[in-house]
Design brief:
- The chain is an alpha/beta fold.
- The protein has a domain at 4-113 and 204-280: Rossmann fold (3-Layer(aba) Sandwich), CATH 3.40.50.1820.
- Helix content is 40%, strand content 16%.
- It contains twelve helices and ten strands.
- The chain has a seven-stranded mixed β-sheet, with helices on both faces. Strands 6-8-7 form a three-stranded antiparallel β-sheet.
- Strand 4 (79-84), helix 3 and strand 5 (102-108) form a beta-alpha-beta unit.
- It is globular.
- The protein starts with a strand and ends in a 23-residue tail after the last helix.
Length: 303
Amino acid sequence: MIPAIDFGGTGPHLWFLHANGIPPGCYRALMTHLASRYHVVASVQRPLWEGSDPRSINDWTPLSSDLLQFLEEKHAAPALVVGHSLGAIVTLRAALRHPDRFAAIVLIDPVLFPPRRILQWNLIRLTGRVNRHALIVAAQNRRQSFDDLDRLFSAYRQRAYFRYMDDDSLWDYIGSIACPAEAGKYRLCYSVAWETRIYATGIGPDFDLWRGLPKLSLPALILRGAETDTFWEDTARRVQRANPAIQVKTIDRATHLVPLERPDETADLIHEFLLSSATASTPPGSSFQPLLSNSQAPRPRLP
């Protein structure tokens, strides 16, 4: 069974996939808002499985197979699925392979680059220079053990990378990336070996996504941060030219970390989209009640 974290909540199930290097607990604020309307369950992806080997993947395709297996194990079909970054691409590829398994998808700042960038990345891989990529170098140089989470918070609070995250979200982030280790210390929960393997094996096969986008017929929303360095504005325009039915919305004062920086707005946009998608799929005059409701249920206490 693929592991998962159940964030509780009332209403229809909503399945969530996290980003590379960002465990599910980092999204606690977003999960809190979503759990007021949905029963939110986050799939734990392969890099966080105990004993998993980074060499088990050569691209991200197996992670989409993991998602399809996860949904089958949960008897979730058709499913409402939200993915961030890596999780968004995993979701998109799975939906293109088996659209019947999905009711709607939300892709938050997906790692989707235009074809020219994919070609450039494949050339970099062919020349053996992948490990020089800035993200891989940064991950390899990242400190992997910590003595004091308060000091870690103070250090991260000063970094521009986290400028739009409030203190509560930053603490959720720190508390989820740092796992207890021996002698009262902490270590990174998400191993550097897996994080760099994800960076090194991504993007290359993504021509298949561009070929598949025009055929995607299920409801789809893409959310992006206005200041993202990942899902560019010209990529958004290219997506909408490929498939005008795909909605794209931009959240101001947000980066690639938009679900951690703007959890309220992100959750509201997800709900508005899913509500409108459910309403649109209900035939006029039908007695069928949409699965989604606009009512506000009490927010549960999360684990």
